[in-house]
Design a protein that fits this description.
Structural class: mainly beta
Strand content: over 45%
Order of helices and strands: EEEEEEEEEEE
Oligomer: single chain
């Protein structure tokens, strides 16, 4: 089965940069998309960025210019770089995989999820 583990979250200050890591394993040859999402209490899970299996195609949600998604195949990682962190970036960040192709943003179309990593940005 597909297995995803997020890491890299923590307590940071406004203006810091942070890289989150999604380590994947399982039937990776079936994956079409790996996505990063975030969720805060009382709100729906929000799409942040997606990348296709080859790592050559990326997709970003609106107002996500400070985010960069990338893939390090040698380490089985999909990375999310957050630049100039803001308090509103505080959330639990999840990675997920989908058999659907690039451009898919709806959480319900992603079938496998990690447990999330908490990012807390202090004002």
């Amino acid at each position: 089965q597909v297995h995803l583990v997020e890491s890299g979250g923590g307590l940071v200050q406004v203006g810091d940069s942070l890289t989150l890591t999604c380590e994947y394993s399982g039937r990776t040859f079936t994956w079409a998309t790996v996505g990063w999402f975030r969720q805060v209490p009382g709100k729906e899970r929000e799409f942040v960025a997606g990348i296709n299996w080859s790592g050559q195609l990326t997709d970003y949600a609106d107002s996500m210019g400070r985010f960069t998604i990338s893939k390090d195949a040698s380490r089985n990682w999909v990375l999310l770089r957050i630049h100039k962190l803001e308090p509103d970036d505080t959330a639990v960040y999840y990675c997920a995989t989908s058999l659907a192709g690039r451009g898919i943003r709806e959480p319900q179309k992603f079938d496998y999820w990690g447990q999330g990593t908490q990012v807390t940005v202090s004002s």
